[in-house]
Write a sequence for this structure.
């Protein structure tokens, strides 16, 4: 009995010892996964470039199968940082990485993408190519020191193309597919994005503060499973310093970010013109939520580089305060591609300088042309539960040969100097929308078909109609409630206006329910209306 107990005790001790050894080994392995850049020669007093030291730390981690390259508190100077698979960059609180503004520190040039065109150019500041499981995280700061890049791009590169960097660009890019319209590519000086993983899987950017980007800030290209969360981006008024631009990616999650930049805050893209159509890689399955956007040309923007298509996008629970535009979807003839299946919900916008919502297919001036692969399309786009204040409630501007299709606005409350303008569109509906304007109607439609206005409300200035149709075909206006004192409920113009039906609108306080121009020949069907519409339905 005693022997048995002793044997059991020894066996238990052996098992316990094994467990302790495994735990100690695991702890040691865990410790070995961290590669402090200071141990590889980096300086955190900003006295010299740490590019080579960082490269050595990444190489050591990569050789071990992966690990975390760690930046403790301090100030670092570096050139381009190239990530490999299974590498995490951890920038601790109190650490600041200042990227060099010497253009030579981003040579040799690498495969990259610039505004939807595939080229070889300066290395991005953080770059990865065909890597997996890469992360940039921490509570520290990364600073792109972009001013020298901005000044050269907007100054000398416009006047001359003879710098060594431009000549190298021309040498390496003889056969690229240029955009349809000449532009910056011809100047040969392409500023690098701040963070650009290309053809990567499982990319995560978390917690860091990013500032002074030379060009687009977070710009994944052709990546799958991308997460950007808890990131702060601060770029001053500066050229093309967009915040987050995932292009031709799949399964992208952007959340809890705070963005104030010199161009668009978040932009979704998929290539430009022939180059984008040749690659033919869409941006799809994106979620954007819980973000705050301040300074920027647009809060969330799709395009104009969308030639590979953009589909299955949700934008929710965001605040835009002070951007030039709120939600902006833009394209032009020549792009091709389809933007479809977009949902925007639960958004608050204030101090919007231009349009609160804009869908513009004529971003560049052009003439109608036969439908072809160059023709873009917007369809199946839906907005709901939005409170906003700005200059113009909305603009839908389609193409004569390809109208915008199937757009809905539900549960909106907007205050704006001007209301909605809907042009070259089909199957557009407003449900329970209130638009208060300082000038003009709440909704103005021109060259549109199949409109539905259900529960439209609004306060407009004296003399302005609540709704104005010009050459509108097949419109159903029902359950609307104009504010007391409205002069005209519906104004009709254009010989093409036909098939307009009014039903169950509360018109007791409206002086003129319907005003028709002489050119409008077809009668308006008015049924179950309240107020003077029953006796005086039309005024010419």
């Amino acid at each position: 009995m005693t022997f048995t107990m002793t044997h059991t005790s020894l066996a238990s001790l052996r098992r316990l010892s094994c467990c302790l050894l495994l735990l100690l080994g695991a702890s040691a392995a865990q410790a070995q996964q961290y590669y402090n850049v200071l141990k590889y020669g980096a300086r955190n007093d900003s006295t010299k470039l740490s590019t080579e030291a960082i490269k050595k730390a990444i190489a050591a981690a990569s050789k071990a199968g992966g690990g975390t390259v760690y930046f403790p508190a301090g100030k670092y100077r570096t050139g381009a940082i190239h990530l490999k698979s299974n590498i995490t960059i951890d920038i601790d609180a109190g650490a600041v990485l200042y990227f060099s503004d010497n253009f030579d520190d981003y040579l040799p040039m690498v495969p990259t993408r610039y505004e939807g065109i595939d080229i070889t150019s300066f290395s991005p500041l953080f770059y990865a190519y065909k890597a997996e499981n890469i992360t940039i995280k921490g509570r520290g700061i990364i600073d792109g020191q972009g001013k020298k890049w901005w000044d050269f791009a907007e100054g000398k590169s416009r006047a001359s193309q003879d710098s060594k960097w431009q000549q190298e660009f021309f040498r390496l890019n003889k056969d690229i597919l240029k955009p349809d319209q000449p532009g910056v590519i011809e100047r040969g000086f392409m500023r690098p994005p701040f963070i650009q993983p290309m053809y990567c899987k499982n990319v995560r950017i978390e917690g860091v503060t990013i500032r002074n980007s030379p060009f687009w800030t977070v710009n994944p290209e052709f990546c799958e499973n991308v997460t950007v969360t808890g990131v702060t981006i601060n770029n001053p008024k500066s050229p093309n310093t967009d915040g987050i631009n995932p292009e031709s990616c799949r399964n992208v999650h952007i959340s809890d970010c705070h963005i104030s930049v010199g161009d668009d805050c978040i932009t979704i893209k998929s290539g430009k013109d022939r180059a984008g159509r040749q690659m033919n890689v869409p941006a799809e399955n994106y979620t954007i939520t819980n973000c705050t956007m301040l300074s920027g040309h647009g809060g969330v923007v799709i395009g104009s580089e969308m030639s590979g298509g953009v589909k299955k996008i949700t934008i929710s629970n965001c605040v835009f305060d002070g951007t030039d535009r709120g939600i902006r979807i833009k394209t032009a003839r020549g792009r091709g591609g389809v933007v479809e299946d977009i949902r925007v919900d639960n958004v608050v916008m204030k101090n919007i300088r231009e349009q609160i919502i804009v869908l513009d297919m004529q971003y560049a001036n052009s003439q109608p042309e036969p439908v072809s692969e160059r023709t873009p399309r917007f369809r199946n786009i839906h907005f709901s539960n939005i409170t906003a204040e700005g200059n113009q409630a909305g603009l839908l501007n389609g193409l004569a040969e390809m109208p915008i299709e199937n757009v809905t606005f539900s549960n909106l409350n907007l205050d704006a100097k001007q209301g909605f303008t809907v042009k070259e569109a089909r199957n557009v509906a407003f449900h329970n929308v209130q638009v208060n304007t300082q000038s003009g109607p709440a909704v103005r439609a021109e060259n549109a078909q199949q409109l539905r206005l259900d529960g439209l409300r609004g306060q407009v200035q004296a003399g302005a109609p609540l709704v104005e149709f010009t050459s509108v075909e097949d419109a159903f206006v029902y359950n609307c409630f104009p504010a007391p004192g409205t002069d005209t409920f519906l104004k009709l113009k254009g010989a093409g206006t036909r098939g307009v039906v009014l039903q169950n609108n509360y018109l007791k306080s409206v002086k003129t329910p319907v005003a028709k121009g002489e050119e409008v020949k077809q009668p308006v069907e008015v049924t179950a209306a309240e107020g003077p519409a029953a006796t005086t339905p039309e005024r010419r």
About this structure: Helices lie at 2-32, 51-63, 147-154, 156-159, 164-172, 273-279. Residues 11 and 335 are 73 Å apart (CA to CA). Confidence is low (pLDDT under 50) at residues 24-29, 532-537. The two ends are 113 Å apart (CA to CA).
